[in-house]
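Researcher: I've been going back and forth with a colleague about how RRM domain-containing protein might be arranged in three dimensions. Neither of us has a model we trust, so I'd like an independent prediction. The organism is Ascaris lumbricoides, in case that matters for your notes. Sequence below.
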Amino acid sequence: MKGYVFIVFDDERSVRRLVNHCHRDGNDYYLLVSSPTMRNKPVQVRPWRLADINYELRGDMILDVRRTVFIGGVPRPTRAGSLFIETNLTMKGQYNSNSLSSAQ
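Model: Here is an independent structure prediction for RRM domain-containing protein. You can compare it with whatever you and your colleague have in mind.
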């Protein structure tokens, strides 16, 4: 088996239950997964705190799914707020509170 999967749980307790079913090797967590060709392959589980996955420039903002993006390949300790700041610096401040605010 090759590849990856992202699972988003609504409740952080579900993440804890998943992690509790994992085998630990140092700071890494592994879940044993079977397929028709392989049994009990250790697959790494990399939990991410729910509090770190979203960032709102302002608390009164309404999420517009047409303006929502997924950014992959981000190092695990990166928080959404930090990613916003770095992206905004890279884009030379093109994003502001008006361009990110409420859906119309």
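Researcher: What would you highlight for our discussion?
Model: I'd start with this: Confidence is low (pLDDT under 50) at residues 97-104. After that, consider the following. The chain has two domains: 1-47, 48-104.
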